[in-house]
Specification:
homodimer, alpha+beta, Aldehyde Oxidoreductase, domain 4, seven-stranded mixed beta sheet, six-stranded mixed beta sheet, 19 helices, Ald_Oxase/Xan_DH_a/b (chains A, B), Xanthine dehydrogenase family protein molybdopterin-binding subunit (chains A, B), oxidoreductase activity (chains A, B), Ald_Oxase/Xan_DH_a/b_sf (chains A, B)
Amino acid sequence: MTKQDFRIVGKSVKRADVIEKVTGEGKYTGDYHMPGMLYGKIKRAEIAHAKITRIDVSRALAYPGVKAVLTHRDVPRVLHYGSPHPRSASCTKDQYILDDRVRFWGEGVAAVAAISEEVADEALDLIDVEHEPLPGVYDIDTAQAPDAPQLHDVGPGGNLVIPPVRIERGDVERGFAEADLILEGEFEGGRPVPTYMEPNVCVADWDGSNKLTFWTSTQTSFMVRGALAEVLGLPLNKVRVLVDHMGGGFGAKQDLFQHEFLCALLAKQCRRPVKMEFTRRETFIAGRSRHPFRMWLKQGFRKDGTLVARDMKIIFESGAYGSHSPGVTNVGTASATSLYRCENVRLDGRAVYTNTPISGAYRGYGVVQTYYALDIQMDEAAERLGIDPVEMRLKNAVREGDIAPSGHPIVGCGLEACISHGADAFDWAGKRNNPNRSDPRNPAIRKGWGIGCEMHGSSAYPGIKEQGNATVKMNEDGSVTLLTGAAGLGTGAHTALAQIVAEELGVTFESVSVVHGDTDVVPWDIGAFASHTTYLVGSAAKIAAAELRERVLARAAELLQESAENLGLVDGIITVRGNPGQSITLVEAMGPTRGVPSEHLIASGSYTPTKSYSFAAHFVEVAVDTETGIIECRKVMPVHDVGKVIHPIAAQGQIEGGIQQGIGHTLTEDYVIDRTNGRSLNAGLVDYKMPLSMDMPDIETIILEAAPDPGGPWGAKGVGEDPIIAIGPAICNAVHDAIGVRFHHYPITPEDVLKGLKARREQP
Amino acid sequence: MTKQDFRIVGKSVKRADVIEKVTGEGKYTGDYHMPGMLYGKIKRAEIAHAKITRIDVSRALAYPGVKAVLTHRDVPRVLHYGSPHPRSASCTKDQYILDDRVRFWGEGVAAVAAISEEVADEALDLIDVEHEPLPGVYDIDTAQAPDAPQLHDVGPGGNLVIPPVRIERGDVERGFAEADLILEGEFEGGRPVPTYMEPNVCVADWDGSNKLTFWTSTQTSFMVRGALAEVLGLPLNKVRVLVDHMGGGFGAKQDLFQHEFLCALLAKQCRRPVKMEFTRRETFIAGRSRHPFRMWLKQGFRKDGTLVARDMKIIFESGAYGSHSPGVTNVGTASATSLYRCENVRLDGRAVYTNTPISGAYRGYGVVQTYYALDIQMDEAAERLGIDPVEMRLKNAVREGDIAPSGHPIVGCGLEACISHGADAFDWAGKRNNPNRSDPRNPAIRKGWGIGCEMHGSSAYPGIKEQGNATVKMNEDGSVTLLTGAAGLGTGAHTALAQIVAEELGVTFESVSVVHGDTDVVPWDIGAFASHTTYLVGSAAKIAAAELRERVLARAAELLQESAENLGLVDGIITVRGNPGQSITLVEAMGPTRGVPSEHLIASGSYTPTKSYSFAAHFVEVAVDTETGIIECRKVMPVHDVGKVIHPIAAQGQIEGGIQQGIGHTLTEDYVIDRTNGRSLNAGLVDYKMPLSMDMPDIETIILEAAPDPGGPWGAKGVGEDPIIAIGPAICNAVHDAIGVRFHHYPITPEDVLKGLKARREQP
């Protein structure tokens, strides 16, 4: 199909759910209310590491309106993953629903169901917990010390979540021997949290046949179903997980949370529906953050800029439990095989337990951390070698056919195109060579420009197995329903899927409805993560739509006495090539006679993905106030290769949102844990600083359909995670361009800037 | 598959919904409550035939709590069928949602939505309706008179609903010429109504995208969807019809009722959910009854009992609108081609409009009326020819290969088997030859024994087109979900379907769940009627399950390195023939690796039925009190051939329920309309007399698997309607046996008995 043939794909059609979103009519999990519903609350530990010696719930149970209290004595003692993500083989089950041991400050130790949230909250204070403190592990160094207190009895030991991930290619020592310049540095990243608008919330209800119906704000409804069934000892057809609208997830809502198990158990005990909803504070304490990390990176370059060796050790801080650490460690380590091509790499990735809140999945996991370091050191090398940063990147950028982090050759590589196109569009050379870098209104403000690059895979890491499924059924009037398990986090994924079905089948966009978010009725789905929904489920939906189209045309061919190959189907009209007068409508071809459809038009598609990569280069202008230390990100030009774009405005929205979050990570966002006792210091949006709309830069998004992936629908690739990756190093590099100070960490605070400037002034 | 191989089919497994039924937890449409929900009520005409000259709703609209009032001026003026049943070609659209003309007493003329049922009810009294009376048509004779007032402008005219149905086979005149005995009689039937426990109820809710979600107690959710979409001008993917549990329907809940359109329109106008629920009184006035009928029947017999000619004219009273009259007339007429074989038949069937409540679909429609007359006249012939009634029936009973009412040869005819087996089991000869017929405690009470026969088709009338569909998906743990559009009227149909899936697929009954009653997610379904769900949808489910089984065994064959033909799958265990140690479980074969199922196991089956017939002979003992005229039905032995029985207790339940309703029809039930003005005289369960449990006879059900149908799952045939058909003539014939009085009508009241006895005594 040539470009001009698209009627629906590639157009920014109006989202079907737009009215219910703006009117507040759309149902989020928190909107579910049922007669007799109770409210659950969790008693949280006020110590980071301890053995519980006694819990007395008698006062709480006696409190009027309290219907049930659960402690570790009352719940199944089954170890589970916490993360229901498809597990790498090395993953360890390390969580109990409730344990007699506390591993982080704020961990749940008991749960209450009561007639109102207020009564439940009041009852929490009536639960008496006594404990015996244990020595705490509050940072990566302590965790790795030979005599460190051990958080878990399971796993490989030494506070490691999984055995170290080690990747070696080529001959690193020989590479360094060939290098003209060797750079070595330590990099660190803080603890940003995905501050989704909708706090975690779930509602559990059991019926008389012992079936659990469970509404929850999750990206992975089938994984939640599986984990609940496993831990509660139910067959999968006795657990129904439902999710309609979601107010964001950003990866963190892939986990199976403690409150979800407790909500189900409270509802079972009370034989009444129970709702549990996090406060904003709980989304910090009991939610999931990006993994804090520390990384040692040594790279060797030839004079001409060619990267010849890379040696890397990265340690991710998992917090009290494993959650997504296996995935983050694998992805974060494997990703360092690529982006900038390097024949000789030696990588060591680890994740360690500490007595801090749980790190989990968050947009661009692993990659954000690794590529932050790679791209800053690339900039340093350019500076040291006197090569323009853009030239430096073009020289080293990964290319078509190079081995991707997945171990497969890359098919569809648009990185060079993004860098080159962006450098021109941004006027990189003109800006960087501009000698006037001071703000005319305030000479203390210095401007700078930077570049960062990224690549991100869908279904593209070693050991990952994926499968996309979709069912399409056509009604008697030619309107169509797509059934999919893919969650709608708010990204517009369902709109893109409907576009794909409409385009492939040959009906209008409006005639396609989407049913989703009910594990009882939709096909199995792996979950919405890894930027893969459009790519993976879109491909499955396209397969199903193609089958229906074929069946429709076969029948139309009979009716019209034409060969099916000679027929077209566009906007619900079947036409005969070369005979425009002979067209018939879908209803005429497929519609009912005596109330019965001509045949039952339902088709299911299943897709096992290849590996696909998306690419981007971000160009950034910053203004650094040398008096206050405040960094203002003024302009961003993100240039993305996402293959075929299904819905331009939605893709642009993803990119802009990623940039906003990336700015937050890089400049202001850090969930701070007191490293002496594990207490949260800023669990709330007053003290945890996200960029607001007034903090947003001008963003001029450029989407290139540079390198379509043959595995995606019409070459579409992922876009969800990409935009959060390159923005960080681009800002950091621009700050260096502005004030000559090189930072190796995020967030870069005003205090850091002032300290950096002071140190630079004091340099000999 | 031989009989002993069945593990699940043929067993009375415990219904999955039994606990929610008995605890009251199961959700019926009336159990749906939504925030902001309004309540709708209908203003009903107090005249049977009139032109509305003025409706003033201003006082109602001003009444506190009233949110909307609709009259014929406010609703789309679109003619519709009323019955969303697959239409025969001759069917006429004759209903408006609201019209400026009233055609029966109690017809809705306006609708109110208010904050409570009470307020809505009060507002009805504030609607002022003025009308100009029109001459009324209150009976069949008036309707057919040449100068009769015409109820409708559409249709063939002469108050006919459809053109007369005429069937002629052989040479009737020659048949009569060959006859030794010619009988001629007039038969009549009253107006029984299906007094389902759950009055009609619906809830309508529109979302911001102009999509209507519609919960309603219906047997035909896809037909409701289609009719709502057509009349409201919506595509089918903008109408979602939902029905979970139902408290019965018995055929009547196939219609698309006036209140359903009005509920949808009120909700649209108010932008709030609206519920409308019939009072018991409204289920009479605005519900659907069996068609009252009058029939002239002339048959000729040879001396040896052989039936040689049949001439019949039947007129069904449709009431004010057509509804199912086309189907009833076709079925009621065509059915008279069969049951008792006759080479020479001439049949004329008609339906006429009258200004009375609407007749609709009701269990055994058309056939109940026709076979009542056939079987009574057969009894008369036996008496006149001095042949035992059982012998008479055996001589004339339709046989394998005879032409069925559908026009096709009968495959699977068990009628002779039912008659013969029953005569033995009932000790027919012994009872009938017993000279002592008086009750020992009350000599005024006389006992008698009678027989009635029936046949009933699934998917088996001329012009009927059917299609069964089902989707089966397997979860990663081997549990299974069946998605079906088949409604669950309370019959246990979903249990039977789950049994079929479990048996065919090779899993336990408990591992199969059923999802139904949501047009957005389940495959298209024709509706639950015509006794066809197990036969039609069961066949489709079996096809889908067989496909899954094949895919499971293909994969297991790979894993076990065996040929698939050599594998068995029973209760979720895959075994190798001749190698018992090598078995693997379904989970081992299909289950997830790294969280992802080995393949996506979903399959859809579609089945276009052949024609199938079920058969029965009912043997009855009655006791007639010659002083009070009360007929007591004391014992019934129903002998049914339903092919392969899927769930014996459910089948028996159908039979017992049918007998209870049949006793009501024959002896006590009649919804009486004043033939001078069209007013209802007994719209309620105080004055309309159903048999209660204490009125039930001893029933000894015998189910023969005499003649399996090759088109049904393992030979299963329908059973839903059969039991209501033969019980009526069997009672009537037994009454004659007891007191020597022959009745040609139902219900046979005590007054009728006393009159009949008096007439007999006064006979010369």
